[in-house]
Amino acid sequence: MAKPDIRQAYEQNLSDYKDTIPHLFHHNALIILTNGHAAKIGSLSSRYEHFNDWKRLEEDAPGVVDLETMLKGVCAKANFIDILENFILFDDGGERLVKIVARNHQFLGVNRAIAAVKDRKARDGKLGVFWHTQGSGKSYSIAFLTQKVHRKIGANFTFLVVTDRIDLDGQIYGTFAGCGLVNNDKAQVRAGTGAELKSLLAVQKPYVFTLIHRFNQDVNPDDPYSDRDDIIVITDEAHRTQNGLLSLNMRNALPNASFLGFTGTPLMSGDETTKQTFGDYISTYDFQRAVEDHATVPLYYDARGDKLGVATNDLNEKIAAKLEEFELDDPSVTERLEKELKREYHIITAETRLETVAADFVAHYTTAWESGKAMLVCIDKVTCVRMHALIAKHWDLRIAALEKDLAQASDEQGLADRQRQLAWVKATRAAVVVSEEQGEVDRFRKWDLDITPHRALIKNGFETDDGKRIDLESAFKKEDHPFRIAIVCAMWLTGFDVPSLSTLYLDKPLKAHTLMQAIARANRVHAGKNNGLIVDYCGILKNLRKALATYAGTPGGGQGNPGDPPLEIDPVRPPEELLADLEEAIDAAEGFLSARNFRLLDILDKAGFERNRAIIDAKEAVNENDESRKRFQIMAREVFKKFKACVNFRAVNAYRQRFAAIRVIYNSLEEDVATADISDIMRELHAVVNASIETQIDPDDNDDRLYDISRIDFEKLKKEFERSPRKNTTVQSLKDAIQKKLEMMLRQNPLRTDFQKHYEELVADYNSEKDAVNIERTFAALLVLAEELDVEQRRAMREGLDEETLTLFDLLMKPDLEKSDIAKLKKVAVGLYGVLQQQLDAMQDFARKQATRDSVRIAITNFLYDDRTGLPQSYEPEEVDMKAQAIFAHILTRRGPDIHAV
């Protein structure tokens, strides 16, 4: 006879007992459901989905679901008392009070961490890495751990909980506050500044919560914040920001503290620095085991980007690497992505591509409308706002289509279903959720976007029926709230649990840890949710497979394995070897500067204006030519890499100042390139010369100091340059500015290659011969080129055209035309551009298909041959064909890459 389903124990027995004899549960600690064979454990407040198996008596065991394992694991005297005392929490931070009983993996993992705390002196303060996959209750595990340490080991321990993102800090503090362990309003435990952090650590508190960024002040290791040995630093998401100056400051501030790393993702190959910082794994609970244990739901994958032809497969690795590099230290990545990725960024953010993704998103999500909430992940904040507008447009079209479909219902049931779907679509709300940054209004305005209404909604939330307001986070977590679509780029991708979130739409190339954290947003257990769905628009399957191989397999990577870090930066090597490598790298950079008559110590020894002048002198030495600049930048990056490998050694403080001085020079060089602008360089040149050299002021000189390139007095600049104390840097900055301007102008009009050729010849001459005369000659030539570029840039205005039509006009031109033919040619360019714009806007992916390419080519040819619209009579048929081909090639280059390369 078949055993009854264990669900019956919940739905028939437990539910009935709670209704009829509720006093039976007044003193209840935990509940075990069983059918005599299988068994699950939960609490009085648990829904059935949150009753869990107890499969293992030891973490490394394969796991068996049966009543015997449950009784041995839970009801054995020592374990039962341990669970009763240390593994039950009451969380009042959500919609209702819930009673939390630890799951099997939490009980085993936390007790392993407890053993590490007891053994912390032998471990030299490295308590280990606690890797439990996303969705497995990591925040509750930290709460169980800290409570048990206070009860069983010592009440005087201070736990410093460190994260690297504001939303993650808020999430883990919220868990502790909901469980009644802290209340920042009554007794401060959250550090809002570095000064507050220092004062909080100076007194004995059970808990302190902070961002790693609060350790932003240099700390003298001989004057720490606290020398107590009963401080335990718990770092949530341990693999990030644990090997830079902030981490060094933290260790200098707390020299006798112990460190425990919590992470939802494993230590990938090449991430051995985390092991060096925290020690080896003390507990692991991987993705595959969590799914097998029903702690998370399985995730399914839909490669819709490949189906739509908008996937960016060949670009993903490069974009993902840049995103990972930028987002840790710069919340505003749009400009940096656009600058460094250029073509790749414009491909993934092309309007036609985003339009295709938005249309498919609306169709897909509204078709599976009962599946739960959705999150769309975009590459950056600007793209989030652009996508919101595109989705709103297609959402309105979808509503109109659904209203029209009501008439197609064949019976009352069908009509009722369609009416429910229509009501759901009309009620659904979407919102952009991005972090705030300084100057964002102007930054978005440059893209013709208004961030103001989105920022107001993020700050104020939604208005409720009773006239009150609910914040976005609470609204998204409420299953029945109509805020169902969150459009994000970085926020809410870590430490944000929404069980009803079932579909993650991914249009942002990600890799490794970040990718796994993102997809885990959809793996939470929820009533009626059988799986989470990852809808992939950019084609990250290759990266996903690579990440899952580590995520579900053997963690970490040993020496000698493929993908391990190079030997010279491998942190597993002895500290003295790594420090010797660092000293060698610093000596090399310092010697490079010394050979060019600059003392690195000048930046360290001097202050104020003298220090600023020293930085200028350092750049002047580095900017001897392009080769010298590149050599210094390579040396500096070696210093940074090797300093990072040593940052957890106390002895690295001896190299800190020289490292910081090299970084100041490097960052200043990078800033020069990023902000290179011809007018700014001229203004700076005037300022430097006038500040450095006493000059005779001419009372009749009414120079108004407006350095618009068209108003520059080039002769005066040449004379000032001869007296300038920073010739090398000025020439280098002017070169960078001209190169940026040339790149932009060439993208607009490919016929400007003569300017590019002239520029490259100037640079080659400059690098081949280095003396004062050559520097001044190069500067004079660059000034002439800058003036010529300005004249060329204004040509469209003089011709009565814009940049797009000027390009067509140039392509259509031929020598010795009459004035009347030239006038007609301008009209042809304007008319042809209008026809092409209309035709291309109506097409998706025109470059991929032969038929659409042919239709565009025919449209160009027909237009140019037409007696009313076409080229002047002075053009022979073979010339018309040649011009038509040139125009088509240009369109394919300009409009094709946005789609064709995808």
Give a description of the structure.
It is a single chain. This protein is α/β, with parallel strands linked by helices. It is built from 37 helices and 18 strands. The strands form five sheets. It has a six-stranded parallel beta sheet with strand order 7-6-8-9-5-10, sandwiched between helices. Strands 11-18-17-12-16-13 form a six-stranded parallel beta sheet. A two-stranded antiparallel ribbon has the order 1-2. The radius of gyration is 33 Å and the shape is flat.
Give the helix tally: 37
Q: How helical, in percent, are the residues?
A: 40-55%
**Total number of beta strands:** 18
- Rounded mean pLDDT score: 78
Overall geometry? flat
Helix/sheet category: alpha/beta
State Rg.
Answer: 33 Å
Largest sheet: 6 strands, parallel
pLDDT < 50 runs, ≥5 residues? 551-572, 684-714, 897-902
Distance between the termini: 59 Å
Strand content: 5-15%
State the strand order across the main sheet: 7-6-8-9-5-10
